[in-house]
Amino acid sequence: MSDAPLVRGWCPDLFAPMQARDGFLVRIRPPIEGLDAGQVQTIAALASDHGNGTIELTNRGNLQLRGFSRDSARLAGRTAIECGLADPDPARERKRAVLVSPLAGYDPACHPDTIAVARKLQAALLADDRLASLPGKFGWGVDGGGLLPVRAISADLVLQAGQDGWSVRCGEVVTEALNEAQAVNAVQAISFTFARQPEVKRPAHDANITKKVLEKAGLQGCLQSTMPPTFALPVGKLPGHRVGLGVPFGRLPASDFYFLAKQQGEDRLRVTPWRNVIMPDKTMDHPGFIMDATDPRLRVEACVGVSGCERATEDVAETALALASDVPPGCVLHVSGCVKGCAHPGGADMTLIARNGRYDVVRNGCTKDIISWGNRDLPDIRALLSRELKEIQA
Ligand code: SF4
């Protein structure tokens, strides 16, 4: 593993592309409603004509294109603005980071106003110049529940639907239910409180600090578990005449994106924070996509590895694929190129951190947790998966 320092608190975007081993990264935020066919084609053309031809889906529901030169990254920015995929003002563009339940408007069990609330929240954030000092990583969410239950999506501040209205989730703290306008105002007020704080700019792991931030914004909250609920990945047939297409490691060639543009017609394509896509159910089968939610490739996560990142020493996706059949249903294995854990920042049943052909292993945690077994080779890992994941399942 490289000893290069981790860059924390900064997130590449369209106006601040990041240099990686394989060139500049360009990140595009889809609109709240999803991408129309013209936008999907434009993104595919950018990736194939100016990047390395690969499109990555991120765990914030964004799209990341790789392998750009500095000039072609600028061109990508201009193109994205022209086709409604970005705001021309970089400060406003950062405030477009509103993640929405990907089945909103389709799943009858998802709150019917989810998209409308997300639009109102985004409009309020865009209009609020006081939020300019929020860090680039700061993000918002609107969680309407349903098949993908409330708390399935995560962000710094989340409006979550309940029986009595919308509450605001901020780290581990949740406010009482509010009406729509109050809830949007509350998110704006909490965002502003974070923006003007000198130090803690995002919800802290310490619930007492978060509660104090809420109090400064004139709100009260109570502690709620941050453990995400268990739910099936949206792959295969879905409500609202939708189908979820699994994408191995959230990476697909531009040619597959062209295929999706043809299939969606007048409809929208949505990217989920689980790095797959939701399409109309008339979409034809295609070998690049996984339609079966029990496919073992959906149980493994891995970052771009040595082909795209200076910190990696190996092709971690190849390792993950080799181990996929050793991961039982219901479990997740994350193979990370380094301790940064880009592909799966949360916990997994087993997390491997690659180090020059060997692996440190964390059981039931993330790359930054205490290592359970250090410096193991692949046969050791197979034995651990067989023993430990059986235990987790039991
Ligand atoms: S997790 Fe992977 S992609 Fe992220 S910094 Fe480490 S090696 Fe690079």
UniProtKB/TrEMBL annotation:
Entry annotated with the keyword Coiled coil: no
Q: Which InterPro entries match?
A: Cbl_synth_CobG-like, NIR_SIR_4Fe-4S, NiRdtase/SiRdtase_haem-b_fer, Nit/Sulf_reduc_fer-like_dom_sf, NO2/SO3_Rdtase_4Fe4S_sf, NO2/SO3_Rdtase_FeS/sirohaem_BS
Q: Which UniProt keywords apply?
A: 4Fe-4S, Heme, Iron, Iron-sulfur, Metal-binding, Oxidoreductase
Q: Which residues form the Nitrite/Sulfite reductase ferredoxin-like domain?
A: 19-71
Gene3D superfamilies on file: Sulfite Reductase Hemoprotein, domain 1 (3.30.413.10), Sulfite Reductase Hemoprotein,Domain 2 (3.90.480.10)
Q: Which residues form a coiled coil?
A: none
Its domain of life? Bacteria
Q: What is this protein called?
A: Sulfite reductase beta subunit
Q: Which species is listed as the source?
A: Gluconobacter frateurii NRIC 0228
